[in-house]
Amino acid sequence: MPRSRYASATAALVAVGVVLAGCGSKPAATSGGSAGVAQDPNAAFEVWTRSTEATAKVYGKIFADFSAKTGVRVDYKPVFADFDKQIQQRAASKDLPDLVVTDTGSLGVFTSQGLVGEVDKGSVAGGADIGERAWDNGKASDGRYYAIPFSTQAMVTLVRKDWREKLGKPVPRTWDELADLATAFTKDDPDGNGQADTYGMLVPGTTDRGYLGWWASSFVWQGGGDVVKQDGDKFTVAVDSAETVRSVEYLRKMFCDTKVVQPGALTTGTNDAHAFFETGKTGIYVTGPYMFGRFDKNLGKDKYEVIAAPKGPAGDTVLGEGENIYLMAGSPRADAQKQLAEYLISAEAQRAGMKGDPTPVVRLPVNSKVDVDAVYDDPRWTTTAKVYADSARPFPSVPNFQPFRQQFSETLNSLFATCGGDVEGDLGKLAGNLEEELRAQGMSK
């Protein structure tokens, strides 16, 4: 039976849609789209996070500390499998959770569907301690804020240091050196077992949620390409540019020519991918810093190193994203939403999230008062923070980037699977589809 908040849920969601369109009155500060919804301090306060079992334990402790300090009971539900599907099911039944912590990639979907309302960042206690770079994670294409940042991160390159040193190879600083190292890890028996059972590059190449496009994005930017580019307050398609073609051809060589990626890469999801690195099957993994704790335990901290991305023709740009706090529409607990959001960005909660074992839920803190070096005391995190500051960028801020990432992922997957396709031609066809998507979202130049 739906909770009482949804007696007028349809009206609430329509109101959020009006806000997103820039019309009507602005909702109450940090209301999460709950303006006009009858409030009930006795209603359950349901919180979701996109979490594995390990990270759920860290979140659970943070929520317990919050409850102890405020008296607000949190009905916590960690979700990993089919997170997006479950959110959509709850939206369809007009029974959304009150607050959600999930990745920045959900911002476009949540705003376009009216699942969250506008956030007045000036009214968020502690909001002034969050830098503008982090706040941008919660900013939509209309320049307004619909989420509060919780954690940031940058993609880094993990390399089997013991393999590299055994083969006498340098730390890769360029694309050519990266390709050479990946080939050596594949062909030169780096583990010394006499078997051809190692591979250079670990790729989570599934099209599920557009993961292949997510992994490839850093390489595309390093090559000077892009999927779409901002042009004033609109966007133009760039997926068929000469620079993007060059970047995709570089990646295709790994699959089709040197064959340095792990078997089954094009159906491998991120969860399944990790085991290839920690069990000694692959030697290079472009991923987030959230993997350090797991690999330290399952592989050994001394066996791998963390480096900035080797430079491509246009530099060393990498994907930088994170997790946001989303105040969901229709909540009868706007007070609790605000309290918990403000607690999560506090220095106390941010440090607690960074100390998660083996996996932190706060990777790089959004609170400027938290010292990364002091908390982690780990040069790998110092490297990650520097990469984020110097080289990281998010996906383009179209209202909903997911369709772009999904179609890009599917095109890459097809090109890498067949090996005989026409990169320039296929990206040209994709460009036409993406132009249609830009028009549908009202973002075409």
From TrEMBL:
InterPro entries: SBP (IPR006059)
UniProt entry keywords in alphabetical sequence: Signal, Transport
One GO cellular component term: ATP-binding cassette (ABC) transporter complex, substrate-binding subunit-containing
Keyword Disulfide bond part of the UniProt annotation: no
GO biological process, one term: maltose transport
SUPFAM superfamilies: Periplasmic binding protein-like II
Signal sequence extent: 1-21
Domain of life: Bacteria
A molecular function GO annotation: maltose binding
Protein family according to the UniProt entry: Belongs to the bacterial solute-binding protein 1 family.
Protein name: Carbohydrate ABC transporter substrate-binding protein (CUT1 family)
Organism, as annotated: Umezawaea tangerina
